[in-house]
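For the sake of clarity, the format in which proteins appear in this thesis is described at this point. The record quoted next illustrates the convention:

___
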Amino acid sequence: MKNHSNAVVNVIGHINPDTDSLCSAIAYAHLKREITGGEYVARRAGQINAESKFVLDYFQVDVPDYISDVRMQVMDIDVNRVIGVDAEISLKKAWAIMKEGMLQTLPIIDKEGKLQGLITIEDIAKSYMDVYDSRVIATSHTPFENIIETLDGELLHGDKKEKVKSGKCLIAAANPDLMESYIEKDDIVILGNRYESQLCAIEMGAKCIVVCDGALVSYTISRLAESHGCFIIKTPYDTFTASRLINQSIPIGFFMKQKSLVTFGLGEFLDDIRETMTKKRYRDFPILDWNGNYFGMISRRSLLGARKKQVILVDHNEPSQSVDGIEEAQILEIIDHHRIGSIETMQPVYFRNQPLGCTATIICQMYEEVGIEIPKKIAGLLCSAILSDTLIFRSPTCTEDDKKAAEKLAQIAGIHPEEYAEKMFEVGSDLSAKSEEEIFYQDFKKFVVGDITFGVGQINSMSAEELKAIQEKMTPYLQKALADHGIEMIFFMLTNIRDESTQMLWEGEGAKELLINAFSIPKDAEKIILRKTVSRKKQVVPAIINTLQE
C-alpha cells in the first residue's frame, strides 16, 4: 500500500506569481522543514516573470515545480500494489495467487512493465465451465512446464520450455486396438500403468503421455519415447483428476481481457474518473505510472479513502487568486499581508496576516521568533521580495519593519539593497521581447465584490519610454483578456517607480466611470494618471472596492 505517513505539504503563492509570492513560498517551505523535519515543498502556480527569474538565478536557487490544480488525484488514494504477472502462467497458478491475496482481478504485464491485459475470477470460472474443446491446450500454446506444474508432475523425457502447438488431449481408457482408431499425431494422452497402452500411444505419434497414479515407467517405454520424440510426464493424480486438472495449465493470456481496457494514470483527477468508473461494471481498474507502466489497482471503494492535498497559502488568501481546486484542498496555514478575502476552510487553520509591505517580512520575523538562522540564499530571496513589493521602499505599504528586515537580510545575503534592486527592476521591466499575454499575466489578480468580479494587472518599470511602449501593446489586448476571463472589468496599472506614478488602462462596461469616481478624476479626462500611487494592494484595489460598495 501507498505510504502517506509523510504526506507532502505544498507551499503555494498566488497564480501569476510575483517575486514575493515565489520567494516567500521557497523560504517558508525551508523554515517548515527546519522546524518539523516534514516534507514541505514550494510550488509555483504560474509562469515566473523576468524579475523573479533574475532573483532565482542570482542566488542560484531552482525554480519551484509548477502546480496547476490541487484537486484530489489518483496518487492521493491508496492504490493496491497488486503484483503484475506474466501471461504465460497457468490458470491454476493465477487462481492460487488471487485466492491468497483475496483478489478479484489480476493484471498481466510484459517484461517492460506494460499492461497487457486483465483476468478476473469470473474469467477463470468461465474457462473451467465453458471450454469443451479437446484441442484448447494446443490452441492456447500451453507450455509443457505449465502442465507439469498443474499436475504436480515430473518430466521424465522432453523439454519443459516447449509449447503444445497441435493435437488434442484425451484419456486412453480403451484397449490398444481401439486406441489406434482415435489417437493421432501430437496428441496428449492421459493413461495408467498399462504397458500396452503406453506403447500404443507412443507408436501412434503422441506428443506426450501422462502416466497417472505415480506409476513406474519401464526402461523400454522411456527409450522408445525418446526415440519417437514423445514427452513423458508422471503425475501422482489418478486419471480422472489429471484429466480434470489439465485444462488449468492453459496460460492466462489465452483468456485475459486485452481490448478496450479502462486504465487511469496517477495524475488523473478523481473528479474526472468517477463518471467513467460508474459507467463501467468492472470491479477493479488498473493504474499506470507517469511512464505509462503498470502501477497498481483501484476499485470504486478506493475513492472513499482519498486524502485531500495539504497546502499552505502564502501571499494571498482569496480563492480567485489561488490555484485551481483550492476548495478541495486541506489548507493548513495562511501567511499573508493583503486584505482578508472570502476563503473558507473546513477546520481551524494557522492564519497570520500582518499589515506589512511584503509577506517576506512576516516570514523573516518567523525565522527570528523560532531562532532559526536564515541561510544566505534564503536571505537573498526574502530581501528581493521586500525590495520588489515595496518598490525599493517607495510604496505606501512599506513599513519600518519592512525596511529593517530588508537591511538585515541584505547584510546576510551580501548585497547592497539600492544597487541590487536597480538591476532587478531593470531586468524585470525589460518586456520588449514579450507578447501582450506574457506582459498581462506577469502580475494579474482577480477580486470579487458581491456579484462583481474584476481583475487588476500591474507592470513596474524605471523607464517612462518602456511604459509607453507597453501601453501601446496592452490597450488593444485588454478587450481579449476581459472576454477570456468572463468578468465585468479589467484594469491595468503602468507604474513608474522613479516618479511614483501610475497610468491606468481599463476595459469593461462602466470601468472608466468607476475609476473616475474612485480617484476623483475629471469626467472629461482622456488619460487617468494617478500621482503618488504605486500600490495595487493599498491604493488602487481598496479605492475600487469602496466605490463598488457605495
Summary: The two ends are 57 Å apart (CA to CA). The mean pLDDT is 92.
